[in-house]
Amino acid sequence: xxxxxxxxxxxxxxxxxxxxxxxxxxxxxxxxxxxxxxxxxxxxxxxxxxxxxxxxxxxxxxxxxxxxxxxxxxxxxxxxxxxxxxxxxxxxxxxxxxxxxxxxxxxxxxxxxxxxxxxxxxxxxxxxxxxxxxxxxxxxxxxxxxxxxxxxxxxxxxxxxxxxxxxxxxxxxxxxxxxxxxxxxxxxxxxxxxxxxxxx
Amino acid sequence: xxxxxxxxxxxxxxxxxxxxxxxxxxxxxxxxxxxxxxxxxxxxxxxxxxxxxxxxxxxxxxxxxxxxxxxxxxxxxxxxxxxxxxxxxxxxxxxxxxxxxxxxxxxxxxxxxxxxxxxxxxxxxxxxxxxxxxxxxxxxxxxxxxxxxxxxxxxxxxxxxxxxxxxxxxxxxxxxxxxxxxxxxxxxxxxxxxxxxxxxxxxxxxxxxxxxxxxxxxxxxxxxxxxxxxxxxxxxxxxxxxxxxxxxxxxx
Lengths: 200, 252
Known about the structure:
The complex is a heterodimer of chains A (200) and B (252).
Chain A: H1 13-39, H2 57-84, H3 87-92, H4 97-108, H5 122-146, H6 152-157, H7 161-188, H8 191-198
Helix pairs in contact in A: 1-2, 5-7
Chain B: H1 2-17, H2 20-68, E1 109-112, H3 122-126, E2 131-138, E3 144-153, H4 154-160, E4 169-174, E5 179-183, H5 184-187, E6 193-198, E7 201-202, E8 212-214, E9 227-233
Parallel strand pairs in B: 1-9
Antiparallel strand pairs in B: 2-3, 3-6, 4-5, 4-9, 6-7, 6-8
């Protein structure tokens, strides 16, 4: 690795701020969301109340409807800065099918290269794009669950109020799955954690 | 300029003179003492301040929802074949505590910023123009159910009693000691119904006999049952669940 690259800022300060604020927002929303789910479970299971936030339905709703603003404003800021800085285009695109197949095979063999932190491999690109789309879906389905009368078009797109709850649930499950893989990958390549703190 | 520069140099020099273990000890004390007082301070006030912050945001969410509320936007209506059967009974108490109200003795009290404060009998209420709707009831817990409610458009009733429509709130007191309040724009919404019937029959006790306020634009806990008093006011009246922490606007 070239020496002067080590000092180059790979993750700008705004991105790191967005990332850690998002972590706080997502944690509060998921843990309070589990408590809200428990009030009227969609499926035949509940979340253990010890790992939920809010103490009771009313408390969980207070957390959920506060943290949603953090997620929304932080997310909008992330999208805005990502797009105007050109970072979104350069870091995530192009995505080539052949690269994806190669990187997937390499990942499954445990040989996916992480030498260059300034570039995402194709699996990473897709994973991060997935979580961006997934959080947008969480916000939109959440809007329908919260305000089904005020957003008729969105409600119909989600297949009605009851279905919006199911969409909201599976989008949450997708986010939890992403976080799980994300944390495992950070544990396997710890320098990425340093990168997200120091920027280089 | 020169003086401040000199000062900082002097301090730097002085610090150099201090033996480093002494310096480290001072820092350590500053951290632990400060840290300790912070920690103990936090343990006592953290919970209270977090709660205060959350309630403040909930109030802001009330304002946001009032701003978002479109008086002309209607809640979806459904075919009668889609009515949920049986429609769930829901209250903060069990079925055995459903209030028994005698139709003959019943009087609806009207007070506050209204011109006509006379109390209404059920017979009088039934003489007002009646309408019905099949809409979705959404509970704060997340479940929903479709039902058919009939009665008097609340705006008609408010006009009939000469309510001050520029007032902020309409409050409700119920026979089961439940109470709640709503904003005037929702009170005047065309689907807000002073409900006297369910599925074409007199409102049964489990759904709020003799009268409930049905609003498909608000969550279930905002729809009071067994109403015995209605008042129009500018003073925030709160509500049974709202005072415990549920969001006041509770709009859908």
